[in-house]
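Researcher: I'd like a structural prediction for the single chain below. Treat it as a standalone chain; there are no partners to consider.
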Amino acid sequence: MPDFIIETSYHLPMYRRRPYTAETMEQACIFALGDEGWDGAREAVDDSGETYVSSIWQGKTAYDGPKLAIPDAFREAVERKAELFDELVALLREPAQPMGISEHDFRSWLPRALAILEKADAIHGGGAASP
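Model: Treating it as a single chain, here is the predicted structure.
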């Protein structure tokens, strides 16, 4: 039976609360995002992200064996959603052309659209997304 080294991760948000004097709220946000000082920051333990598989190697130690592709179901959901978003945008552009879509093109487009929607449903927990 083969051995696998599975690396799992989760994101632990950090936060800080600081005052910023600015002309507008938007400008204050820009100042806050540009502020590189994180002294006094706190961990937002209650807001930590999901645990996901970040790397897999075959063998008894990391880097000794080949690094394997992580099955989609175990990858970070936010990464999968970002990839799905790109696929959905590309797919939606096809029938949205100014001259419309022919029946032939629609018959080619529909199975791909349904496959991507299945992928979206899997990412969102198996059910169709709520509006």
